[in-house]
Specification:
Strand content: 25-35%
Mean pLDDT: 81
Helix content: 40-55%
């Protein structure tokens, strides 16, 4: 009986380790640096993330001008033009563009697979 418990525990620990590894890889966002001085044109759903006075800011529906960047806060509807905020480019640090909502699928896949793996081995271990 002790050997069965050890074997089941090893399978569960292996599954947990694999899940943690998958989540670590899945949680990595794919951000690309951007140069605001070139006034790039971004798609409506592209998210611009930057540091502003020690705070992280995420905007979509971004518009660049010669001296500022404006956009809708990321968690707001892009159609909400009254939500648009503007920041002076001189205070914007480390700007980068990404699509964080795409990372959700890369996060959900390992979670679902890991959960399924744990359920299968839990059921097999009790038989």
């Amino acid at each position: 009986m002790v050997g069965v418990v050890d074997s089941a525990m090893r399978r569960v620990l292996f599954a947990v380790a694999m899940l943690v590894a998958a989540l670590t890889v899945a949680g990595c966002a794919h951000w690309q640096p951007v140069e605001p001085a070139r006034q790039p044109v971004l798609k409506e759903r592209d998210v611009l993330q930057f540091d502003f006075v020690g705070e992280k800011v995420r905007l979509h529906s971004v518009r660049f001008t010669a001296d500022s960047v404006s956009g809708i806060p990321w968690l707001r509807n892009p159609a909400c033009d009254s939500c648009r905020t503007s920041y002076p480019l001189s205070r914007v640090d480390n700007p980068r563009v990404g699509r964080p909502e795409e990372n959700l699928w890369f996060l959900m896949l390992p979670v679902g697979l890991g959960f399924g793996y744990l359920v299968i081995y839990a059921v097999r271990g009790t038989q």
